[in-house]
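Progress narrative, work stream C.
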Amino acid sequence: MNPIVNLFLIKIEVIMKNIKIISSLLLLLVGLPLASQAQTTEFFTPEVTLYVLSGMVVLVAMIVLGVAYTVYTMLGTLMENEEKKKAEAEGREYVPSPSMFTQMIRNWTNAVPLEEEKSIELDHEYDGIRELDNHLPPWWLALFYGSIVFGAVYLFGYHVADWWPLQEEEYQIAEAKAAEALAVNVAQGNVIDENSVEYNSDPTFLEQGKKVYDASCSACHRIDAGGVNGLGPNLADAYWIHGGTIGEIFKTITYGVPANGMAAWEKSLTSEQRSQVTSYIYSLYGSNPPDAREAQGTLVERAGADAVQIEADSVGGGDSLLSQPADSSSIQ
C-alpha cells in the first residue's frame, strides 16, 4: 500500500477514535435532560429539543472539521513530496514552503525575516543598534481604522440620525415596559402591591409571615415586636408613623424609610413574602409584649373595614409599621 495512503488511513482512524469519545460525552450530556424529563407528560420539551439539536450540530461540525483538517494535511504532504522529487530532479536543495499558519502570521504582522532585514535597514546606527524601517502590522492598522469607522457610525447613529436610543432613553423605555408589565400582572392578580394587598388571617399564611419576620424584622423590632430603643418602634400597639392601613404597611415594608434606617425589602422579599409578613405584623395588635417601646406617631383606630387615623399627643421618631384591626378578617 502507498505509504501516503497508509498515513491517511491512520489519521482517519485516530480521528474516528477521538470522535467516538467526544460523541459519548455529548450523548451523556444530552441524556441528562432527557432523563430529567422522563417522568413528565411531555418528553421532548422545546428546551430539550433545542439541547439535543445543538449537541448534534456540534458533533457533526467536529466530524466535518476533523475530516477536512486530515484531508488538508494529507494534501500538503503529497504536495511536499512532489516538490522534493522535483528539487532532486533539478539538482537543487529543497526548501520547504511555510505552513498556512506561518504564512498567515507573516501576512498579519508584515514581519520581515531575519535574513532579509538588510532590505529595510536605515542609514542610522547608534551604539551598535541599527534602525529598521518596519511598518505597522496589518492587524494593528485594521483595528485602528476599524475603530475610526465604528466611532463615526456610533456618533452619527446615536447623536445625529437617532437610529438608536441613548442611555437615558433606554432607561425610560425599560421603565415604561416594566410599568406596563407590572400593571398587566397586577390586573391579572399575579403581583401584589400596596393597592391590591389584603389582610389574610389564615394560620398557615400567618405562620409563613412569622418566619419572614423572624428572619428579616426581629433584629430591629424584637422577636415579640416590642421594638428596640434607637432602632425599630413597637409594632404591637396602635400607633403608626407612616400609616396603619394594610396597604400603607405593605408600602412601608416594600420601599422602606431610608431616612430613618428602615430598609426597603422590595428586592429581598417577594411580593408574596411581603404580604405574609404584613399580615403577620398586622395580627400582633394587643399582644402587649413586656418592656415594649413607648407609643410613637399617629393613633390608628379601625371601624369595620376601614382604618381611621387620629392624631395623638405622642410624637416619635421611628418607622412604625402596623396596627391590628378590631375585626381583622374584614380588613383589606
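Work stream C, second folded protein:
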Amino acid sequence: MAFGTSKLLTTALDLIKLFRSGLTPWYCRLFVRLILLVFMAGFFPFNALSPAGEPKAENGVGGGSPPQDLSFNGEGETAPAGDPVLEGVPEPELFSKPRMLLSSSYQIKRGDMIGDLARKFGLNQDTLISYNKVKNTRLLQIGQTLKIPNQDGILHKVKKGDTLSGLAETYKTDEESIKTVNELFSGIIREGTELFIPGARLDWINLQEINGDLFIWPISGYVTSHYGYRNSPFTGIRQFHNGIDIGAVSGTPIKATMSGRVIVAGWSDIYGNYVVVSHHSGYRTLYGHMSLIRVKSGQYVSTGQRIGDVGSTGLSTNPHLHFTVYKNGVTVNPRALMK
C-alpha cells in the first residue's frame, strides 16, 4: 500500500468537502473526523510501509540496517558514534549536591573490612574512618557499630583561627556546602565544634597509618619479642620493650621500611651497630644489633633499600633485628603500621 503526497492531499480535501456537505449520516461524519484526526496527527505510518506491506525498521526496534558510522566500545560491541548516552551524561545535580547530614547504623560482622563496607554503602573509606573516628582499622571488632553517613566527607574539629572560607579553601569545597550539611545559619564557627566537610578526604599519610600500611617489614623473619612490657632476658625484671625483635639468620639483609634520610649510623652499647632513618610526618625508625651497617649518616634511602645486615651486636642474646618506630619523638607499636 503506497500513497503519493498529492494523492493524500486530494483525498483529504475530498473528505473535508463531503463532511461539510451535510449529506452524510452522523456516523459517516464521525468516521471522517476520526480519519482526519489520525492523518493530521501523523499516527498513520504511510511512509513506513514497504511495497510488500511490511513495516520498515529505521535503525531501531524491529531491525533494519545499522548506521554507517559505528565505533567500538572496547568490549567487542559496536555503538553509534556520538550517542550522548554512551559518551556519558552528567548525573542529576541532586545526586552529588551536598545535603543535610543524616546517618544510619551497621553492626560489624565476621569478615567485614573497611574498604568492602565503604563500597557496599557507596562511600569512600575515608568517610567511614573519619565519621567513626577509627584509629586503626585492624582493631575493628565483630559486633561494633559503625555510623553510616548519607554522603562522602570527613570530620574536622574547629581550631582557633579557623574560618569557613579557610576550611572551604583547604578542603577544596565551598562555604555554602559546609553550611548546608552542618545546618549552619551564619558564617560563625566556634572553636572545638566538629564540622562535617562534604567531599573532603583524609591525607595519604593518615590513611596509611589507620590502615596499617605505612611501613614494609624490614626483614623476613619471625617476631621473638613484642612491643610493650616484658621480663628482661638479662635481669628478669619487668620493663618496657620499645620495639619488636624479629629473629633471622645472621647476615639477612635489612631493608629501610620507608624512604627517608639516615640521621644516625653508628654504635650503641645497647643496640650495637644501629641505624636511625628520619621519615616524613614526624616518623623515625631505628634498626639495631646489625652485624654490618651499609649506609652513612646523611644518606637518602628509598623504601626497601638495603641498609645493613642482621647480627647480634650490643645487648643481644642471638641474631635478630630490634626495630623501633617513633612518632614525633614517642615510640609507637610498629605492628600497627606495618603491611
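Residues 43-86 have pLDDT under 50 and may be disordered. No further action is required on this item.
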